[in-house]
Design brief:
There is one protein chain. The chain is α/β, with parallel strands linked by helices. It folds into four domains: about 1-90, GMP Synthetase, Chain A, domain 3; about 105-260, P-loop containing nucleotide triphosphate hydrolases (Rossmann fold, 3-Layer(aba) Sandwich); about 270-325, no CATH class; about 335-425, Orthogonal Bundle (Chromosomal Replication Initiator Protein Dnaa, Chain: A), CATH 1.10.1750. It is about 55% helix and about 10% strand. It is built from 20 helices and nine strands. Strands 6-7-8-5-9 form a five-stranded parallel sheet, with helices on both faces. The chain has a four-stranded mixed sheet with strand order 1-2-3-4. Helix 7 (about 170-185) packs antiparallel against helix 8 (about 190-195) and helix 11 runs antiparallel to helix 12 (about 280-290). The protein is globular. The N and C termini lie far apart (about 80 Å).
Length: about 425
């Protein structure tokens, strides 16, 4: 009997080793290692401490568990400690599951492409969006990135409004919340079906998934499945895939596997047109366009303030009134510190992180980019530039600028991004 027990223990150790080989060590240590393992009647029984753990393992790690168990000729069931019977089979047992999206996922009235003011710099990305909205394309996923207020979400809304066939659109935050809710409600398979049963899937603000391992794994599989089915995928974020923090290299690679296109912040002429479309007088729009930040949200706020004043006071808004109304909004002389803080927002990093000692790849690239932009946009010395990015010394700044200059020769996206930042800082 002791020999039989030793043999079973050896088999369980071999099974654990096979499972560990099919997933990253952190996931195995956090979720699989704490389970109770047992084999009976050709079934590998895994017992979790609670229902949430069982549901999570079922939804995220089913492929690895099934593949490892198949090597030993076993099926897999995940149960809960103390339950009368296993409650969560790894594969969908075809039980009917009900899922309905939360009210906030129900989209607002959609916009058409006419609502997006196109600058020459954005002609390419807008053309790609129109092509995708017209039908299936070969460059899915379309990954759109740019700073806050550049129009990423508006373009996503335009695609939703004009897309052929059915469309599912949600923000990154909504995806996280809905996936978690489906786990708690035991409707994860229905949630998977909801996301996949469409012709176009749109996720706005992908960066909201950063650091959420289970949700990221589910989203990665969703993108793979949608691509395999020939569906269109549209993703937006505040940074290019390889500059997104909180995602591993595999995720960054998948996000960049289609067409990556940036959206340039509104130019002065685009801001003028946006203000005029919102009802601001042509003369006032022309005067203040160059003094309003290149942020679509802020431009909308400026237009709303001017229109509301005109309605409440019953008087037209000339430039003198506009300057008084917008004293807290119109830009004054740009200081190096203001430039750095503005670039932090556009590059998706915090000012504290830039000035800190962090050495992650995305953070170092952002820091070096800022140094190069300050060199191109100002007359600051290298030592002065270093002071605005965390008291870096002269040699560090020189090295960073040289590195960026080398990258610009081969990376056209980076070169265009730096030129745009320099233009905004001048």
């Amino acid at each position: 009997m002791q020999a039989a027990a030793t043999k079973q223990m050896t088999n369980l150790d071999a099974i654990k080793g096979a499972i560990a080989a099919k997933m990253d060590s952190a996931s195995f240590t956090s979720w699989i290692a704490p389970l109770a393992f047992d084999v009976a009647d050709g079934v590998l029984h895994l017992t979790a401490q609670n229902q949430f753990s069982a549901d999570f393992i079922t939804s995220v790690h089913s492929n690895a568990l099934n593949a490892a168990a198949a090597e030993f000729g076993l099926a897999v069931r995940v149960g809960v400690r103390g339950a009368a019977a296993p409650v969560a089979p790894v594969a969908n047992d075809n039980n009917a599951q009900a899922y309905a999206p939360a009210a906030e996922i129900v989209a607002a009235p959609s916009a058409g492409f006419d609502s997006f003011v196109v600058a020459d710099e954005n002609a390419f990305v807008v053309s790609a969006c129109k092509k995708l909205a017209a039908g299936a394309v070969s460059f899915s996923p379309l990954f759109i990135y740019g700073p806050a207020g550049c129009g990423k979400s508006l373009l996503a809304e335009c695609i939703r409004g004009c897309a052929a066939g059915s469309t599912v659109m949600m923000t990154g935050g909504q995806f996280v919340a809905e996936f978690t809710r489906s786990l708690h409600n035991h409707s994860v398979f229905a949630f998977k079906d909801f996301c996949r049963n469409c012709d176009t899937f749109i996720l706005d603000d992908v960066q909201a998934l950063a650091g959420k391992r289970a949700t990221t794994e589910e989203f990665l599989q969703l993108v793979v499945d949608l691509r395999a089915a020939g569906k269109n995928i549209v993703l937006t974020a505040n940074a290019a895939p390889n500059n997104l923090s909180g995602f591993d290299r595999r995720m960054q690679s998948l996000l960049a596997s289609g067409l990556v296109a940036d959206v340039v912040a509104p130019t002065a002429n685009v801001r003028r047109v946006m203000l005029m479309r919102a009802g601001v007088g042509a003369d006032v729009a022309a005067e203040i366009a160059g003094r309003v930040a290149a942020d679509g949200h802020m431009i909308a706020g400026v237009a709303t303030k001017i229109k509301t004043y005109a309605e409440l006071m019953g008087a037209s808004v000339d430039m003198d009134v506009a300057q008084r109304l917008l004293a807290d909004t119109l830009q004054k002389a740009k200081t190096p510190l203001a430039m750095v803080r503005n670039m932090c927002e556009k590059l998706g990093v915090s000012y504290e992180a830039v000035c800190g000692a962090g050495r992650s790849r995305g953070l170092v690239m952002a820091r070096q980019t800022m140094m190069a932009v300050l060199k191109g946009a100002t007359n600051l010395s290298l030592a002065e530039i270093g002071r605005f990015v965390g008291d870096r010394n002269h040699a560090t700044v020189l090295y960073a600028i040289n590195q960026v200059e080398k990258l610009k020769k081969t990376d056209l996206v980076l070169s265009a991004q730096i030129d745009q930042l320099i233009a905004e800082c001048k």
